[in-house]
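Recap from last week: sequence in, structure out.
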Amino acid sequence: MAALTQRTVLATPAVTGSAHGAPGALRLRGLQWGIGAWQSAVVDLQVPPGQTLVLLGHNGAGKSVLLDTLAGFLPARAGQVQLGAQDLTAQPPEKRRIGYMFQRDALFPHWTIARNLQFGRGAQADLDPLLDALDLRPWLNQYPHQLSGGQRQRVALARALVGAPELLLLDEPFSAIDPEARPSLRRTLAALLRERAITTVLVTHDPVDARLLGDLVGVLDGGRLLQAGTPQQVFERPADLPTARLAGVDNLWPLQVLAQSRLGAQDVLSLGIEAQPVLYWRGTLPAGAELQPGARVTLAVRAEAVHPCPASALVTQDDDSLTLTARLIEARCEGPLWRLRCALPCGLEAETYALPTLWRELALEIGGTLGLRIRQADLHLLV
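Predicted structure tokens:
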């Protein structure tokens, strides 16, 4: 087979949508999946047509086993998998029109990159847009063993996308990509998913992938779907402590309810440690929650919601925000931001970010005092 060294338009033009019309919604109805003796809890979930669901979870959460079930490589233990009007549950993999990027690239080692891309659906597809988007042309005449892990991942991604699959499954697509190259490939993938509008399920353990690529985010732990919603809902309002940890919430403060009262339509909690007040929380308690003095709660606060300010600007608390005194114990540069680790007088630690200009203005040394201002709306109560 001739290598694709020039821009090539094959006889059959590229398909820009589903072969059966517009992309279909993916519906998991009472789905239970498993391998060997392990199986998941029952899950009901829907991904709207053309949108991307990112499943976030640690190793062993059941993410890859779910993808293998959606692809038809493993049978469903219970329930249904529907794509648009099709019931995929009993269909073999070759009938499902699914593009699958495996965690390991799974390229044919004895074929050139060009031939790998022309396999299956790629034999009748216009590959030029993918070759350009993923910068694959220089490697077309090479073999997989001649490429780096990141380069092979790009080829595997292209192979999953060729021929307009009706469902795209991506298993840790950036696992072999160098950290320096991940942001660029992440942006490229986001653009491809928007442009092609393929209903997609992507699994990852990286919250950054989930925030930047997901129209919807689901959090999996031990085969249980802890929460599913928009990225804003999951990352700013995690349903429970395990979800908050998986979503990368930097500040999880265990506190004790010292007193509860009402202020207009809001609940007010005095929260502290060992009877010593730390802060007041204002908001609406979850339905059915009754927090008597002595009850244990956790405040979840993302680092980007904590705003460092000079110690001289301290304001203890108002209706909309509070400012805590803190002592700087570590500062490190993370790309365009400084990450500050601070100690609160109560013994808790807080993490925050500062732009370089603010870091210079604060002129802090380790051990120096600063203020940490937080909006009440950004103090998320977990009960």
